[in-house]
Write a structure and sequence with these properties.
Blueprint (H helix, E strand, L loop, with lengths): L2 H15 L8 H5 L1 H16 L13 H4 L15 E11 L3 E9 L5 H14 L3 E12 L2 E3 L3 H13 L1 H9 L6 E10 L2 E9 L6 H19 L2 E4 L12 H6 L2 E10 L1 H8 L3 H19 L8 H11 L7 H4 L3 E6 L5 E10 L11 H10 L10 H27 L2 H8 L3
Parallel strand pairs: 1-3
Antiparallel strand pairs: 1-2, 3-6, 3-8, 4-6, 4-7, 5-6, 8-10, 9-10
Helix pairs in contact: 1-3, 5-10, 5-15, 7-8, 11-15, 12-15
Length: 411
């Protein structure tokens, strides 16, 4: 860096520190890449903090500034571990897969790895997607109940026209469902879109705006908000658990009694009882919206590693885990995930480190035909969660939970 550049940098830092220049305006002075370093220096000076480690990263700042982040000063690093391989027999994911897990929780990767080993020893887990579609739910205000009823009838007669309006905003997305829910004189319209390989929240929002504008022009009803919270995005909700949002994934495996003893050091009957009394009865008594041991752990670790919207771990935590004895005395283990919201294009999937994790899974970028990569990724997530559930319930059944955390989660 030249002396003139150093002087300009120092001048900008002083202006920021004195309040003469806003943080976001730095990029206009020196450009987005250099702006990261200048902004970091200004923050370090204003807070009296040594934050040089935040400046050590390999991702391309020019690619993420303005696209994935604002006021960037650096990057946070998380340890990344690998679990697996795990054998998957899915409609889209078939074969052996290594799972990249970003976490700071000791024992999580080791536990998931053990579950992967159990599943693979059984010949693999079967997984299927039962529903697929990203939702956005604008809310409209009718004049009275009669007007609300007329609106609901009008919606049923004009779905194809709304679908055409949505199609004007996207090359790949498609409106597949429009379901009204009436509350007094308010009508919440839950729109569901096929978003192919994108997670699709932005796509659904833009298309919903076009549909809403068409509705207000053609029917004459007031749009209150483009999102009325019946979507429901990043919040626990019964509607997502019942109707699904994103991809509804179910994964299963049958574990023989001798394998439970050899790898998990417990018995099928004991695991079934722990799951029933912990995941089902305990969760019901607590009023939980999820009936699982720690599904959110695996969802969060995979989402962080693979550039997903981490806030969607909320919906991932609504997993239902079942473990039931078979007539032969073996253990049927299953996870049902009503709302897995993932994509392999867009969002954080293009960041270099996250892109590499998607490549490890074989799901990076758009699939051919469009949509298959995101579905493959969702199936992998379902089996990964199943592995985590099997390992943790096995540990609790055998009384090994605290011991594992003492050995792997502490120093």
């Amino acid at each position: 860096m030249s002396q003139d550049s150093d002087l300009k940098k120092e001048e900008i830092v002083e202006k920021v520190a004195s309040g003469q220049l806003k943080l976001h305006a730095i990029d206009q002075q020196v450009g987005p890449v250099e702006g990261v370093a200048v902004r970091r220096e200004a923050i370090a000076r204003m807070t009296g903090t040594d934050i040089q480690n935040l400046g050590s990263f390999s991702i391309d700042a020019a690619e993420v500034v303005g696209r994935n982040i604002e006021n960037m000063i650096g990057a946070i690093q998380l340890p990344l571990g690998i679990a697996g391989p795990v054998t998957i027999q899915g409609e889209y994911a078939s074969g052996n897969f290594y799972l990249p897990l970003a976490t700071t929780e000791g024992a999580l990767v080791a536990s998931t790895n053990r579950g992967c080993s159990v599943i693979s020893a059984c010949g693999g887990a079967t997984v299927r997607i039962f529903k697929d579609g990203m939702t956005r739910a604008p809310v409209f205000s009718a004049r009275d109940v009669i007007h609300a009823r007329e609106f609901v009838d009008w919606l049923a007669d004009n779905f194809e026209a709304m679908k055409a309006k949505a199609a004007e905003t996207t090359r790949f997305g498609e409106l597949v469902e429009a379901t009204p829910f009436v509350v007094g004189t308010d009508v919440h319209l839950r729109l569901r879109f096929d978003t192919k390989d994108a997670m699709g929240m932005n796509m659904a929002t833009i298309a919903s705006e076009a549909v809403s504008n068409y509705i207000t022009e053609q029917f004459g009803i007031e749009l209150v908000s483009l999102s009325g919270n019946m979507c429901t995005d990043k919040k626990p909700s019964a509607i997502n658990n019942i109707l699904g949002r994103g991809k509804t994934v179910v994964a299963e495996v049958v574990i023989p009694e001798d394998l439970v003893g050899a790898k998990l050091k417990t018995r099928c009957q004991s695991m079934s009882e722990v799951n029933y009394k912990k995941n089902l009865l305990g969760s019901a008594r607590a009023g939980s919206m999820g009936y699982n041991a720690h599904a959110a752990n695996i969802v969060a670790a995979l989402y962080l590693a693979c550039g997903q919207d981490a806030a969607h771990v909320v919906e991932g935590s609504s997993t239902i885990t079942t473990m039931e004895m078979t007539p032969e005395g073996d253990l049927h283990c299953c996870v049902t995930m009503p709302a897995v919201q993932v994509g392999t294009v867009g969002g954080g999937t293009g960041i270099a480190t996250q892109q590499e994790c998607l490549q490890i899974l074989g799901v990076a970028g758009a699939g051919e035909p469009p949509g298959v990569n995101a579905k493959k990724f969702a199936e992998i997530i379902g089996v990964a969660v199943l592995a985590g559930e099997i390992s943790l319930i096995g540990a609790q059944s055998a009384g090994h939970l605290a011991r594992a955390h003492k050995q792997l989660g502490r120093k």
